[in-house]
Amino acid sequence: LCYLDLSLPLEYKKLQDICLRMVSPESPAKLYCSYALNIILTAAVIALSVALSGETKTRETEKPVISTLGPCYPTCPSGWIGLGNKCFHFSEDMRNWTFSQTSCMALGAQLAQFDSLEELNFLKRYVGNSFSWIDLQRESTQHPWKWTDNTEYNNLVPVEGEEKHAYLTGSGISSSRDYLKRHWVCSKSNSYTSQYSGPSSF
């Protein structure tokens, strides 16, 4: 906190004393003294105003500025649909299982994998009446279904049929020969961005 010396300058007081000692009210000297006193007083007021203004600006400058980052939101590429921590892409073309997997890999993804009934029901709803390849495959009917990362499928929903590659329909999961042409679904982890809500100060 700054304290300003509001006392009048010594020269001002001396000049005031000289003016008061003058007897004649019509004296030109007294008139000049009045002018001089007014000028000095005006200068003092201006100096005080400038000093107070500078102090206020300094205080405003010293206020802390905080950049506020809002919550994170999942972001998916254009043409992809997000759910939870994943992004899904539904093809319009129809190809065999191998081509479908290669197409997903070119997009930095793989044929769709799901970890919960929520994700499965989401995929079924978007697939509708079409048949779409997903990531599940097996070596034979005597082997378990696995994802392509070699993780064993938890049989959340049984896969119908006796073939080696799985596809999704609006009603469930079935198996088929890999050379048949079908739609496909890709999946990959999404990225997160923080929403910037601007600077705030207090």
The low-confidence runs, each spanning 5 or more residues with pLDDT under 50, are: 65-70, 193-202
Q: Could you tell me the number of beta strands? A: 10
Q: Overall mean pLDDT score?
A: 78
CATH class (first level) name of the largest domain: Alpha Beta
CATH architecture group name of the largest domain: Roll
The general outline is: rod-shaped
GO cellular component, one term: external side of plasma membrane
Domain C-type lectin: 83-187
Main location: membrane
Keywords: Lectin, Membrane, Signal-anchor, Transmembrane, Transmembrane helix
Would you summarize the structure shown here?
With 202 residues, the chain is of the alpha+beta class.
List strands and helices in order, with pairings:
Blueprint: H1 10-20, H2 28-61, E1 65-75, E2 81-83, E3 86-90, H3 97-106, E4 110-111, H4 117-127, E5 132-137, E6 159-160, E7 165-168, E8 173-176, E9 183-189, E10 191-201
Parallel strand pairs: 5-9, 6-8
Antiparallel strand pairs: 1-10, 2-3, 3-9, 4-9, 5-7, 7-8
Helix pairs in contact: 1-2
Subcellular location: Cell membrane
Protein name: C-type lectin domain-containing protein
GO molecular function: carbohydrate binding; natural killer cell lectin-like receptor binding
